[in-house]
Amino acid sequence: MRMRKLFAGLAAAATLLGGMAFGAGTANAASRVIDTDVVFQFMADDADQWANREVKYYKLADYVDYTTSGPFGVQTTPTADKTAIKSALDAAVKGTKLDGQVPSADSGTDLMAWALQQGALDNETGAPWIGSTRNFADALAADAKVTGDATNFKTITWPTYDGGTSQEGHGYKNRWVRLPAGVYLFVDTVKNADVNDQGLSKSTIQNGTEQNSGDVDNTVGGKVVTQSAPIVLASGYVKDGKIVNWAQPEDGSGFNTIDFKNHVTPVVKTYDDKDGTVSNSQYVRYTLGSQLPSFTTGFTDYQFSLKDYPGAGQEVNLNGFLNDDNQPVASNTGAYTVKIYDVNANGDKTGDGTTLTAGDTTFTVTTSTTQQGQPLNPVIEGAADDAAWFDFDFAKLVQSADYQTKYAGKYVEITYAAKITATPDQNGDTPDVTNKVEVNDNNAKATDQTKLTLGKFGFVKKAADGTALAGAEFTISAADDDTNDKVVPVTPADAVQTSDEDGKVTFTGLADGVYKVTETRVPDGFLQQVHAEFEVTIKGGKAVYFKHADIYGLSQDSGNADLNGGEITDYSVINVRNVTELPKTGAAGIVLFTVVGLLLAGAAGTVFAKSRATKRALHA
């Protein structure tokens, strides 16, 4: 309902009725305080706005019936603390023509009646809710004489619907309560930083579920619910300056309705990798998303930030990764971006968005690597246990004068680039690369997280007789025919490995996909013209298929071409000392032709050189 209209009508009624209820002294002997229950309803856009809420009420004023059928008036309820109302009215009229004119608590003047007569309390029907009634409500909610009154500051027990269905836990967006007709203060007493008996935040609805290689499309983020601003709400309606009905609004709905002034804030973190597996040295672009606060009024120095915690195994550069020409080295490695989007009825971002730049009225960026008083250090090496971080602080934006009309409730999105730098641990495994973002909506906090995985595989280099060979060098490169997930993997930073004394060769830091492995140095004592080559498919971080690629038969097909089998851990390739050791039919002939070809090429070169020398001699 529109409180401005009601308060204006109450003021008119107060003027009309004069001293019967609103001046010094008591109400007329024929008057009757109306104690009939009416319905107050609080509207929400999201059922989660009620998560862990405890709402209390405090009655400020009664309706009075002077003749059993009207006219009706208003008077301060006897249980209300007059000094608290006096202080709250002082806050409400500060800076106006009524500043300094509020009667004292012991003057005998009915303070609520005076406020209505003088027009001290207005009401805004929409954002930004910064009028005198807002100041009045905030001051009352901050006064211990109100909130500390164990008798009259009462907790709402939400009634059940007909049939016994509870208002709680059924996804209902709105809540209602029956109270005697009048004017009330309603306070959401759960502060954003409050915790429950288990030490968990009461404002955290959920933390997000992890986006990873097993759930690469996961966008289920975290959510927090904020504390509602205090609310002053009166029942009934007025018409032509008179209180026509003290019980319900003019539409006859029976519900005296107002918006519950809090909001649910989401936070989502995602990456641009298509399958959640990465190679060492690969670039990844992360996206952080949240919704700017819908309500900031009723709270001083409102805070809002998105803080990111890059885990170990990655390097973040907020300025982007650039080449020698000062251009991004890849399409996803540019500098960080911040954009603001409109949202639709479902809270999803729409349109192309507007770019926001850091500044005194928008946001600031700090990092764990920036020394106090020094320019921003944009490079952050990921670390375990939240030791590395960077923070986008939007406090200046949400505290700006035009925030409620220009930015409130819009979607904010941040993107930035990181380079995978993970290295194997003592067991030869490359740890997962994790990342977390935390939204802080005025101390209401929730997180969302991602995980990128890196795989590995190994094989053994042997002689034809099965003896392990050390010193064979192999180079790995990303193949172009990854038919499994249509993603061409990135060649890892450690692209060259050499067999150890046991013949073991291991490649780590690999994304899922198909790789080509080529022997680039044959051990001494073996045919140098004959080298192994094969392809390996990594799935789930493990080798599941080896496909021979050389013409000599030094590598063999492992089977499991459909990729449905388990990890292959016993693959081997060989070297030979002479052509007779070649395992593949016809391979010896191929090598013989190769060797003969090389000899013929050498002989031809020698003959050509000698003929040139003879020719020069004849012409001397």
From TrEMBL:
* Stretches assigned to the SpaA-like prealbumin fold domain: 456-540
Q: Which residues cross the membrane?
A: 587-609
Question: For this chain's UniProt record, which GO biological process terms are given?
Answer: carbohydrate metabolic process
Keyword Secreted part of the UniProt annotation: yes
Name this protein carries in UniProt: Cna protein B-type domain-containing protein
Organism of origin is Bifidobacterium parmae
- Show which residues constitute the signal peptide: 1-29
Q: Which UniProt keywords apply?
A: Cell wall, Membrane, Peptidoglycan-anchor, Secreted, Signal, Transmembrane, Transmembrane helix
Q: Which Pfam families match?
A: Gram_pos_anchor, SpaA
* NCBIfam families (UniProt xref): LPXTG_anchor (TIGR01167)
Give residue ranges for domain Gram-positive cocci surface proteins LPxTG.
580-613
KW Nuclease (keyword) present: no
Which InterPro entries would you find in this protein's record?
Ig-like_fold, LPXTG_anchor, SpaA_PFL_dom_1
